[in-house]
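Problem 3 from the worked examples.
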Amino acid sequence: MSDKVPPSFDRANAGSQGFNPGLIVLLVVGGLLLTFLIGNFVLYSYAQKTIPPRKKKPVSKKKMKKERLKQGVSAPGE
């Protein structure tokens, strides 16, 4: 009787018992990474459509004065 092995411990049946744990971890990590990348792309494209473009920095009075002098228009107050 001791030579009989229960079917759950049979080595011939071990391959069809379930998924490889390494494969499960790989699928979970790959799925999370793929979800993260797709989510970032969706958020980026949504932001590009909805958020207005940045305003340009205001030009300083000194630069405006130089530009006007280049164009031949005298600056006010001179």
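Problem 4, a separate protein:
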Amino acid sequence: MLVGASVSKLLPISGLRTFATSSPSTSIQKRICIVGAGPAGFYAAQYLLKNLQDAQVDVVEKLPVPFGLVRFGVAPDHPEVKNVINTFTKTAENPRVRFLGNLSLGKDFTVKELRERYHAVLLTYGADQDRTLGIPNESLRNVLSAREFVAWYNGLPGFEELNPDLSGRTLTLLGQGNVAVDVARIVLSGVDQLKKTDITEYALEALSRSNIRKVLLVGRRGPLQAAFTIKELREMIKLPHCATNWRPSDFHHVEESLPNLARPRKRITELMLKSLSEQNAQTDSRGCFEPIFFRSPVKFNGTDRVQSIDYVVNELKDDRAIPTEETETIATDLVCRSIGYKSISLDSDVNFDDRKGCISNVAGRVLKKTLTGSDQTIDDIEDKHEKGLYTSGWLATGPTGVILTTMNNSFGVADQICKDFHNNVIRVKEAKPGLELAGKHVVSWNGWKAIDAEECRRGAEKGKPREKIVKIDEMLSIAGGL
């Protein structure tokens, strides 16, 4: 892709190479810094440790606690997805790894400093901002993002005071990905199901008083383009005391498309059609889940708080949603946008694509901000990458895929780092000192273990796996000088 764009190439794991060391003449330890202790960072560290036997890896994280979206993004009723933390913990406890928590890029250090103090720097700090719709009245009270809502119930520091207003009866989720379905499921689940998870106590209390009984899941395209996966849909359909109501008009000609669908899409479409055929037989429902297709929001209505949403009705052409002249207005009491996350630039020295919301890169190698050459066409310029500077995960690819996607991407970028060491693209001429920590309140891995133990202790008192600590100062106090 050309300069200003962001590219990530997934490497099949079978195609990755092993590098025992760099050149035999190099006895200097390679120092690598990874900024971000989420899945992208830990998977890259895992690969680097395995394939560069003489590498020391520092994993730097802005929060005092590790694991990123595994801790703060995975739904509390999906504990099995969090099992990957066990693998990350083994990586962090490798003697060639240091976890440095409570250090922020742009506040405690710059990319320039890192590049001076390490042989290679890998940026994996993720995507923690929201995409917006850009339609009238988007700032009305009770128009939130799904990211904020998830951060609230998952205990991300800074969101404990969100206090979403759950006094109304209808929640509208704009977007049909798995994050939106997670929010729908959490809101419509009974608290008896949630109180044994690691959901925050304040969210559990708020949900116990919630009046939300109907959740609308609105998408701009049709059932054949829905972004949720079959596992998440099956969980919603089977949710106790919750009816699933589809609009039959959304499924015109869908059944006749089944023979031509790829197997994963065919299975999820068959599940939707089966649920549609059974919906009138549902009884004993205290809540209602209503997917709605072919609608794009064009305006939020209300004075102080949202009361309804105006939609344009779409039709599909070549899988694209094309607006028609038809409109529909649907009442709602609370709105969560779920139209994607985006990254932000934390250092002006890095080539960042604001439109895409990610670092400009080719296969994880960060592109220079300014290229020199006759026509500045990327394919004609040999020295187009910032040597020793890389990116992976959502910061490199945009917010797409699941943890397995991130793993493949990070393994591929780490493999590129190994190749660049092996081929002397990164020259290891002298030892590097690593990050200067004097005067900084750094949380070590032992500090995290102290926080972890305290969270588990508090959770055990309530019959939960853990009760997350959400105040940074409290985390730092517990971590102490560890």
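Solution to problem 4. The longest helix spans residues 403-422. Residues 1-26 have pLDDT under 50 and may be disordered.
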